[in-house]
């Protein structure tokens, strides 16, 4: 067969496309988009022009044009993984998760050796809170490329977010076998060990990470966290200083440095570090609260309230800020205003749950729930990342297989709808006004034995939280003066320095009963007594996004 040479028109088009490609490579996106638009105006429908034009449009901020061009390119060449992935990346950037996921799948299916579409899908889902889906897509990426470091780290992070610490550790251990000198692997192992409460292991892993890469800010940060857990606060301050020197935008390092200074009774150092964290991230609620708490320590609740109100102007309804505001108001003596935020009689709702379809009665349902929790692979003994002490805490229970938690998911949604209907027509309220129209649900289990308890805490990522009692020992009864195993609302943790005596209320757990409460309500579980276990299931209603 005779192969002729490319004609002048073809050579010219190739040259024009190479100019656009070069501009993109050099970051001259406006030039690339202007050149692409000139060709598109001539009704040139070359697929490569549509693809490059779409990229240039997106990088130049013309999102609608980018999607239109890439959709045209994808329609003309549906089996091109590069075009499908470019389209997916643009759709992900606009927040159209479903469309992006479909495009990533198209790119993934178009080339059975291409790992990046699955990896990008995992990154997108993980950042949007779908850690179950993210773990699946990272797994697909690793099937294509078992040595994909970032996919393995992403998968481990998804497992960590789900509370599956064994899965996260196992994923990183495989990677460590391939890359024993990889600092990122060691520092991620350090973070997981710290979440579980293995301080020595966290310290060792962070130290190894720094030996592998002394310039890794996260490794110095993790070493600071482990050192702080060992109560060596002066050394922790230095590790956080190094972390910040390497990454001036590490707000968490500044926050922790402030807490280390506070432990050293250096209030000026603490105040400066907390302010630095706020300067880095003005939406960092914990830093604002820590700074305001210094005013409570100084018996100046008015100054504390000013700081929290300024923060709430920018981040309305933030649970951590609402909780602290109620405390500051009570320290000021403004009980009426505080009750708008923390009225236990008004905002805590007890419910009795009926057995869902498929279960003979509530006892049968609870037995299935208990069996599912006790056999769940994420059940971990007292992870320090959570409030449970001398007990067990599971990861996400809405991950497959859900078993009895499939109907329980709907029970939670129905309870949420019932809760918010109760307040329809109420006057404006800083908590009620933030009731989400769209939301996600997260569920986890807590198992306690003798002396098991939960320290005072809130759920800062959610709007409404709840607990359902699956199995309650006979030692929890009305006659028990010490109220062992009961849940108490209203008592803040020791690191909040309120000057007033807190207003608290106890609720007796009963199998088959549910409590709904605002996520900004501090609550704890009193230590359990006796040799019978207590199983509860907690959940959050979290605003989407």
Description of the structure:
By secondary structure, the protein is an alpha+beta fold. It has a domain at 346-543: Jelly Rolls (Sandwich), CATH 2.60.120. The protein is 56% helix and 12% strand. The protein contains 23 helices and ten strands. It has helices at residues 8-25, 29-41, 47-59, 63-76, 81-93, 97-110, 116-127, 131-144, 149-162, 165-178, 183-196, 199-212, 217-229, 233-246, 251-263, 267-280, 285-297, 301-314, 319-332, 335-342, 344-347, 362-374, 405-421; strands at 349-352, 380-381, 388-393, 439-457, 464-471, 487-489, 505-507, 513-518, 523-525, 534-543. Strands 1, 2, 3, 4, 5, 6, 7, 8, 9 and 10 form a ten-stranded antiparallel sheet that branches. A hairpin with a 6-residue loop joins β2 (380-381) and β3. α12 runs antiparallel to α13 (217-229), α13 runs parallel beside α15 and α16 (267-280) packs antiparallel against α17. The longest helix is centred in the N-terminal third of the chain and has 18 residues, at 8-25. The protein is globular, with a radius of gyration of 27 Å. The N and C termini lie far apart (59 Å). Mean pLDDT is 93; it is low at 1-7.
Architecture blueprint of SSEs:
Blueprint: H1 8-25, H2 29-41, H3 47-59, H4 63-76, H5 81-93, H6 97-110, H7 116-127, H8 131-144, H9 149-162, H10 165-178, H11 183-196, H12 199-212, H13 217-229, H14 233-246, H15 251-263, H16 267-280, H17 285-297, H18 301-314, H19 319-332, H20 335-342, H21 344-347, E1 349-352, H22 362-374, E2 380-381, E3 388-393, H23 405-421, E4 439-457, E5 464-471, E6 487-489, E7 505-507, E8 513-518, E9 523-525, E10 534-543
Antiparallel strand pairs: 1-8, 2-3, 3-4, 4-9, 4-10, 5-8, 5-10, 6-7, 6-9
């Amino acid at each position: 067969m005779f192969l002729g040479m490319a004609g002048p028109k073809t050579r010219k088009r190739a040259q024009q496309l190479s100019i656009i490609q070069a501009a993109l490579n050099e970051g001259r996106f406006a030039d690339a988009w202007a050149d692409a638009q000139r060709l598109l105006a001539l009704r040139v429908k070359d697929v490569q022009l549509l693809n490059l034009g779409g990229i240039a449009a997106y990088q130049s901020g013309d999102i609608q044009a980018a999607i239109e061009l890439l959709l045209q390119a994808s329609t003309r060449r549906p089996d091109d993984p590069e075009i499908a992935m470019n389209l997916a990346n643009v759709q992900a950037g606009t927040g159209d998760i479903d469309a992006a996921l479909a495009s990533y799948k198209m790119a993934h299916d178009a080339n059975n050796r291409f790992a990046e579409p699955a990896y990008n899908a995992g990154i997108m889902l993980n950042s949007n809170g779908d850690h179950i889906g993210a773990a699946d897509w990272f797994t697909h990426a690793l099937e294509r490329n078992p040595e994909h470091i970032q996919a393995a780290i992403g998968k481990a992070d998804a497992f960590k977010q789900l509370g599956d610490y064994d899965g996260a550790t196992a994923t990183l251990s495989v990677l460590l076998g391939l890359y024993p000198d990889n600092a990122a692997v060691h520092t991620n192992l350090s973070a997981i060990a710290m979440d579980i409460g293995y301080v020595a292991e966290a310290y060792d892993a962070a130290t190894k990470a720094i030996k592998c890469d002394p310039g890794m800010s996260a490794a110095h940060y993790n070493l600071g966290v482990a050192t702080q857990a060992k109560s060596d606060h002066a050394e922790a301050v230095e590790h956080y200083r190094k972390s910040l020197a390497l990454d001036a935008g590490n707000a968490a390092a500044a926050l922790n440095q402030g807490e280390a200074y506070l432990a050293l009774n250096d209030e000026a150092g603490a105040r400066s570090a907390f302010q630095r964290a706020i300067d880095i991230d003005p939406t960092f609620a914990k830093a604002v609260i820590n700074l305001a708490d210094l005013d409570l320590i100084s018996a100046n609740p008015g100054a504390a309230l000013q700081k929290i109100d300024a923060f709430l102007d920018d981040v309305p309804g933030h649970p951590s800020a609402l909780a602290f505001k109620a405390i500051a108001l009570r320290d000021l003596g403004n009980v009426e205003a505080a009750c708008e935020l923390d009225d236990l009689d008004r905002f805590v709702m007890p419910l009795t749950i009926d057995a869902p379809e498929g279960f003979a009665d509530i006892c049968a349902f609870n037995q299935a729930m208990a069996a599912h929790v006790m056999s769940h692979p994420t059940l971990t003994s007292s992870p320090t990342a959570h409030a449970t002490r001398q007990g067990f805490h599971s990861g996400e229970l809405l991950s497959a297989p859900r078993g009895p938690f499939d109907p329980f998911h709907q029970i939670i949604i129905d309870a949420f709808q019932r809760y918010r209907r109760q307040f329809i027509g109420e006057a404006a309220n800083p908590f009620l006004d933030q009731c989400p129209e769209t939301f996600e649900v997260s569920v986890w289990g807590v198992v306690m034995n003798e002396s098991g308890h939960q320290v005072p805490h809130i759920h800062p990522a959610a709007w409404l939280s709840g607990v359902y009692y699956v199995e309650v020992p006979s030692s929890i009864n009305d006659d028990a003066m010490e109220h062992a195993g009961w849940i108490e609302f209203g008592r803040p943790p020791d690191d909040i320095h309120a000057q007033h005596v807190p207003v608290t209320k106890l609720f007796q757990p009963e199998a088959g009963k549910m409590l709904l409460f605002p996520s900004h309500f501090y609550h704890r579980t009193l230590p359990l007594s006796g040799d019978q276990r207590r199983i509860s299931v907690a959940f959050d209603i979290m605003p989407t996004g």
